Amino acid sequence: MYNPPASAKYVYTAGFSAPYEIKMGTETLQKPMIADADYHRRVMVADTTEALFFIDLSHVQITMKNGDITPMEFVAVNDTLLGLTADNLWSQLATTPIIIASDADSLSAEIGIYSKHLKSLLSSRFNTISIQFELVDANTKQLLLPLTESLYISESEKIVFQNKAAISSLVGKSVILRPVVHGLDMERPDLFYSLAHLYYNQKLEKPIAPDPPGLQPAVTKMAYHLMQNYPNPFNPLTCIQYSIAEAGEVSLKVYDLLGREVAIVVNQHQPPGNYEVVFDASHLASGIYLYRLEAGSYVASKKLALVR
After folding, report:
1. Coil, helix or strand at residue 4
2. Most CB atoms within 10 A, among 91, 186, 217, 243?
3. How far apart are CA 179 and CA 268, in angstroms?
4. Has residue 1 been placed in a domain?
5. Does residue 65 sit in the same domain as residue 109?
6. Which one is predicted more confidently, 150 or 64?
7. Which domain holds residue 160?
């Protein structure tokens, strides 16, 4: 029978390929499960070829109409659980139930998605992984509100974004936030599943646990940036991410190769932050298009490919 020590320590593996070396940290493991800026929870799927896919969730919080913040808590973790399975993996990213107060305005979360050599992890029935976070009724598990649109990942990616949804229509309901993930071949016997608790040092703003090789820590200083859309090629939906360093008018438009405007994706005043929008090209013919971001003096454009 396993008897855990009274004061658990950080236990981690050294290296990202076999043979693995198990080490124990020097700090006593504290276990706050509040999904704030100090604590991130991450679940990962990997195989022996160094292919991996993981989701990092943090900053899950409810903002009140007066601006106050109420962080949500993750589900409790069984510390004696020595291994995760395909059946319980994604449930580790769910939150505990919370009743939406009458003065609640919105719910937001920061989501990081990382992948490497992803195609070797895909089910034969899928060519992408789809991820969506949704608010469901804590009792009936009925969908109440999607926090994110479905995201589609088909190659090596590093994506970090924040999403927010208005929740005033859910006043009085007991809700949980949970992920829905499709596309991974979870029946493979050679897959590994893991759960990581990442505690961030507020002074250094770096994680205690290292990121996998080839994935750099997220940049905390805000800057203007336009990312490549994903998936690309696509049909007919694709996601476009961008960052705004200063508040101002933001324009994101799509043009054909003759310079004709074919779609307005964003045209509004926005505060500084990271943004993600879904572009629906169902009204366009197959071909190469340009999407152009204008924000202040920053102008950037990239190509996207619509393939039907």
Report:
1. coil
2. 243
3. 30
4. no
5. yes
6. 64
7. 11-199
For the chain, what is the largest distance between any 2 Cα atoms, rounded to a whole number of angstroms? 71
Q: Would you say 280 and 265 are in contact if contact means Cβ atoms under 8 Å apart?
A: no
Placement of tokens 């990081």 in the chain: 112
pTM passes above 0.85? no
Tokens for 148?
A: 């994110």
Q: What are phi and psi of 172, to 5 degrees?
A: 90, -10
pLDDT tens, position by position, 227-253: 888 788 888 888 898 888 888 999 999
Instruction: Tell me: do 233 and 183 sit in the same domain.
Output: no
187 and 246, same domain (yes or no): no
The CA distance from 138 to 38, in Å, is 26
Q: What is the pLDDT of residues 171-227, one digit of tens each?
A: 999 999 999 998 888 888 888 887 776 655 433 333 334 444 444 444 344 678 888
* Residues 262, 132 within the same domain: no
Across the chain, what does the average pLDDT equal? 78
- The phi and psi torsions of 269 (rounded to 5 degrees) equal -80, 135
CA–CA distances in Å: residue 192 to residues 47, 53, 80, 222, 234: 6, 11, 18, 35, 30
The span from the CA of 295 to the CA of 276, in Å, is 15
Is the separation of the CB atoms in 68 and 186 below 8 Å? Answer: no
Q: 257 and 159 share a domain?
A: no
| Residue found under tokens 């996998």 | 212
Contacts of 187 (CB under 8 A, 6+ apart): 86
Closest CA to 199 of 15, 58, 5: 58
Q: Are residues 150 and 250 in the same domain?
A: no
Residue 61 pairs with which residues in a beta bridge? 71, 108
Task: Report which residue type is found at 49.
Answer: T
The answer to the question of residue 235 being in a domain is yes
Contact indicator for 74, 97 with CB cutoff of 8 Å: no
